[in-house]
Each structure stands twice: as C-alpha cells, then as structure tokens.
Amino acid sequence: MMETNKENVKSLNHSEKKQISLYSIGINFVLSLIKIFGGIVSGSAALTADGVHSLSDLAASLSVYVGIIISNKKSDLFPHGLYKVENLVALVSAFAIFFAGYEIAKDVLFGETEPIKNLTVAMGVIAITVLITFLYSRWEKQKAIELNSPSLLADAEHIKTDFYTALVVLVGVLGQYFGYPIVEKIAVVVVVYFIFHSGFEILKEAIKVLLDASLDHETIEDIKDILKNEPKIKDIITITGRNAGSFQFVQLDLVLNTDSLKEAHEVAHTIEDEIKKQMPFVEKVIIHYQ
Ligand SMILES: [Zn+2]
After folding, report:
1. Residue intervals in the chain for CATH 1.20.1510
2. How far does the centroid of ligand 1 lie from the alpha carbon of residue 60, in Å?
3. Closest Cα partner for 210 from 179, 245, 255?
4. Range list for CATH 3.30.70.1350 in the chain
5. How far, in Å, CA of 173 to CA of 108, rounded?
6. Ion ligand 1 nearby residues (CB, 5 A)
7. How confident is the model at residue 79 (pLDDT cuts 50, 70, 90)?
8. What percent of the chain has pLDDT over 90?
9. What whole-number distance in Å separates Cα of residue 256 and Cα of residue 21?
10. How far is the CA of 248 from the centre of ligand 1 (A)?
11. CATH (residue range 2-210)
C-alpha cells in the first residue's frame, strides 16, 4: 500500500513536470512567432534577432521535454541508446543555432539597419514578451522548487534572462526610432550573445553525454554520505559512474560486513533504493560486493 502511494506521487510529479515543460515549449513557440512577425512588420532588426533567439530557446525546451519523457522509461529495455539519439539531435540544433546567430550578427553589424516602420507593433510585441516572461519565470521557479526539478529551475532562470533581453530590445527599438541606430546595433549584439549562449548550453550538454562524462565531485560526495549510514558496509572500494543527459548511472564497488549471499543481496537493494530516493536523477545503481 505504501509503495503504491509512493509510486502515485512519483507519477503525479512526473506528469506535472511534463505538463510544465510543455507550457515552456508553447511559450517559446508563441514568443518566437510574435517576435519574428513583429520584427518584420515593424522593421526592427533587434526584435527579429530576439525572435530567432526564442527559436533557439524552443529547441532547448524541446530537449528538456524529451529528457523528462525518457526519465520515466525503464532503462533496461533500451540501454543508453535513446539518450544518445536525443543528444545527437541536440548537437545538430546547437549548430543550427550558431548559424542563425552568425547570420543575424553579419546582417546587422555589417549592413544598414532600417528605420522603425511601425513603433506600435514593436512596442506591443515587447510589452507582451515582458509580461509573459516575467510572470511565467516566477511561476515556473516556484513549481520547480515544489517538484525539486533542476531542469525546470534552469528553464525558469533562462526565461528570466529572456525578460531582461526584452528590455534590451526595447531600448534598441527606441534608440533606432529616435535616430540612434547604433543603440539598436548594440542591442542586437546583446541578443546575439544570448543566442550563442543558448546554443553553447545545448552543445555542452550534448558533448558531455556523447563523451560519457563521469560523475561530478559533488554527486560522489552525496553518494558517500548515503553509504556512510549503512552499517553493513565495511569498505568502499570505488564509486564511479557516468552522466546521460540529466540522468546518472552509478557503479559501486563495496566490501560488505556479511557472509550470507542473501543478506548481501538485500543490502545491495537497500543501498540502491536509498540512493535513488535521495537523488532523483540517479537512474540506475550497479553494485559489486565482496
Ligand atoms: Zn532565451
């Protein structure tokens, strides 16, 4: 009965996380659409650039969604394969993002910027963007803390930077409108920086997984702390493992304080359950004992 309740809570959390990451996809989709449309109609290079930035955010939020979906699958059924497909897709989208950033930088920095044709449209789009990003990042941050989800927290922080980016675009549009195109060029540089930043984050994550990066120091220390509370462990020989996207695969080599094979097996199970319970991103624990 207890187990069933725990499983229910887990799957409820999971479906809520999935739901929130779908909202992020929807928001980035709407933002890229209205910014690119508004940028073209108003003639603002900064707003169009910010629209491309939202497109790169859309790619990032799609990969968060895929990560959350994969986290709920039984990994034994398809060992590691799917993670790498996800990361290959991420790798390709990172390069698409870099290319878009380069194109914008080239056009705006070495070309002539146009005067603002329609200030009302530009201002309307910026106002909507400011409102959506401000409210949504606050709400998502609160949810991320409730659900203890690092990927949602990172997304909330990112959308908060999108709020500041919109303010930069606002300054750029006003600068251009009042006859200072250099202000808009500077705004575009700031936005291009954020485009490259988004691309770089995606690329870093992808390469980490593709190269089977090992566990970070902090994770290993956390595992050590959990193991210290298990009296049946006589000695810890090694703690190793690897990352796969947001998930971790842990491998332990332990000396146990028992001669009974049955008991050793039970202890191993207890350890695995405890680690998984305290560390939600640990997907699998393999324990060798002697
Ligand atoms: Zn962004």
Report:
1. 2-210
2. 9
3. 245
4. 217-289
5. 14
6. 57, 162
7. low
8. 21
9. 42
10. 26
11. 1.20.1510
